Amino acid sequence: MIRACTTGEKPMPRLGYLLPTRERVMEGQDETGSLLALAERAEKLGFDSLWVGDSLLARPRHDPLTLLAAVAARTRKPELGTAVLLPALRNPVVLAQQVATLDRIAEGRLILGIGIASDVPNIRAEFVAAGVPFEKRVGRMVEGIALAKALWTGKPVTWDGRWKMTDAVLGPTPHRPGGPPIWLPGSVTAARQRCGKLYDGWFPNGPEPHEYAQQWAEVKEAAKAAGRDPGTLDAAIYVTLAIDEDASRAEARMNAYLEQYYGMAAAIMRKRQSCFAGSAANAMSWLKGFADAGATHLVVRFAGDHERHLDVVTGLRQSLRW
Fold this sequence. Notes:
By secondary structure, the protein is of the alpha/beta class. 45% of the residues lie in helices and 16% in strands.
């Protein structure tokens, strides 16, 4: 969904905020009160969606579906999403029931962002600990989501694949008929094709604004080739911001954040992910580049100092009538 611009010009994208679940655990703050307070604050400031990430052991944090259930109960307007969930780590029948229940609590506000996870040692170890073969994660994700979608119809399902069942019926069904929209990152060509062929939205975290339009065109072309209407797909982007009028201080904040979060050199992560460090005006100009390239939903992650960042982005958004 797109929010219309009051000036009558091209509609501007919806704006989402990623809750710092990973950061809070890294800081030794396992309580959830501050996270729920941030969710409520973001809703009052007019953010259109609230998001949480996913990991078991590689990057420990709160379980996303459980936390989103609490966020759903504390908010009324924002969409709620996973950025992104790893379905391959979960039994799809159990996941289907959890998602259906969460979508009922959220009354249809849920967006299920899904992915396969990066190929790095600690994530491989996470899959081993969960008893899931890492090399089979793409097939497990695709089949598992297909099974969940079948179960979300509420009709009897017979399945003969990795999971087997005969005339199985799931209840409850999701609030939205057929289940929540499913978004896929699609950072490589094969994934973008898979996204266009099977899912409801593209949700990368890697391209820069000048790369976004071409990659989004690949997704739409894949949808068209599969006999789908590309106009029904959402175009999103997940970015990380460090806003400071002192550019050097913003750069230092971003680099420290990425190195602590991922345990890798900041230069490596900044090549893989869409990141901006600098002034507020330049940050909004950078974000507008994605909108101009076709993005209709921007999800922002802040490199610390969340209350200030929320206020800064809100102020700029209001000044631009976005």
